[in-house]
Amino acid sequence: MAKKLVLKVTAGADAPERCSQAFTVAAVAVASGVEVSLWLTGESAWFALPGRAAGFALPHAAPLPELLDGVLADGRVTLCTQCAARRGIEEKDVLPGVRIAGAQVFVSEALGDDVQALVY
User: Fold this and answer.
1) pTM for this structure?
2) I need a labelling partner for 58 at 20 to 30 A (CA). Which of 10, 25, 68, 80 fits?
3) Do residues 111 and 6 touch, judged by C-beta distance below 8 A?
4) Residue range 84-102: average pLDDT?
5) CATH topology of domain 4-119
6) Over the range 85-99, which residues count as b (16 or more CB within 10 Å of their CB) and which as e?
């Protein structure tokens, strides 16, 4: 079993099931003691902003704000630099605990020892 899980979620409200799956896997992994790094890219970039996760709803799925809070509590959440720039999101805009970083950091994390990387 990998000691670290790196997830890249590209989907947001445009693909709710895929989005919810990524956040669910990340939150369950954190709760299971796995080191988690969740990357918000594409349309999921909006969930780095306060209140945006509350507007997401998917029947029979855990509430996105709860999943995100679980990951933020014991994992790492990163907003893609380019995705943030394309949406006019700056460091001052994001939730506490969310960092903005680029591809070099993602590659470094994803290629580390005992890492499993997933893209949603």
Assistant:
1) 0.95
2) 80
3) no
4) 98
5) Hypothetical Protein Ychn; Chain: A, (3.40.1260)
6) eebebeeeebbeebe
Q: Which two tokens stand for residue 53?
A: 């996760």
- DSSP summary character for residue 46: G
pLDDT at residue number 2? 60
Instruction: Kindly state the tokens that stand for 69.
Output: 């809070």
How far CA 103 is from CA of 1, 65, 74, 84, in Å, comes to: 25, 26, 22, 13
What tokens appear for 99 in the block?
């960092």
Q: What is the dihedral of CA 76, 80, 81, 83, to 10 degrees?
A: -150
Q: Delimit the domains of the chain by residue range.
A: 4-119
pLDDT tens digits along 21-62: 999 999 999 999 999 999 999 999 999 999 999 999 999 999
* DSSP-assigned states of every residue in 15-64: SHHHHHHHHHHHHHHHHTT-EEEEEE-GGGGGGGSTTTGGG---TTS--H
Would you state the structure tokens that stand for residue 113, as one six-digit string?
Answer: 């020892």
Q: Which three-class secondary structure state does DSSP give residue 54?
A: helix
SS3 category, 23 = helix
Q: Please tell me the predicted confidence (pLDDT) of residue 117.
A: 87
